[in-house]
Write a structure and sequence with these properties.
The chain has 140 residues and is mostly helical. It has one domain. It is 82% helix and 0% strand. It has helices at residues 2-10, 13-38, 43-48, 52-75, 79-102, 109-114, 118-137. Helix 2 (13-38) packs across helix 4, helix 2 packs parallel to helix 5 and helix 5 crosses helix 7 (118-137). The two termini are 29 Å apart. The model has no long low-confidence stretch (mean pLDDT 91).
């Protein structure tokens, strides 16, 4: 009975859009909090202080996460499956972040971004955005 009511509600495109939007916003907040835990700086404090590099890196993460949701929503029939695939994509983005840090032995990504090295901030943004398309294209 309950499943039938939920299915009927989700059959309404306005309700369905609101549901996907709400879940994506909540997941975005959670995923950004996880990213903040793995970086050495506080994103929103640095952005408040005018650190453009942190703003670019964070913006790339936001775009990347939302882009993963775009692909997962397009390729899945249910809200739950979309969330699972977006979460899996987020884990891959997080792994990519650590790989990026590992592949740059000459300097520390977090340290350079915190110092407002805009070249590193821009590269971090582009990597997040680009890989979100690669990961998203493989979402089923």
């Amino acid at each position: 009975m309950m499943n039938e009511e939920v299915d009927q509600l989700m059959g309404n495109p306005y309700v369905e859009t609101l549901a996907f939007f709400s879940v994506a916003i909540l997941a975005l907040i959670v995923f950004l909090a996880i990213f903040e835990l793995v970086t050495k700086y506080k994103d929103w404090e640095e952005i408040k202080n005018g650190n453009l590099s942190v703003a670019m890196a964070t913006g790339g993460k936001i775009f990347g996460i939302c882009n993963l949701f775009r692909f997962s929503i397009l390729n899945n029939d249910s809200l739950l499956h979309s969330l699972i695939w977006a979460g899996f994509g987020f884990v891959l983005l997080l792994v990519a972040y650590f790989i990026f840090e590992f592949l740059t032995p000459y300097f520390k990504i977090d340290t350079e971004i915190q110092r407002d090295n805009r070249a590193v901030g821009f590269l971090s943004m582009i990597i997040s955005i680009s890989l979100s398309y690669v990961i998203g294209a493989s979402v089923t």
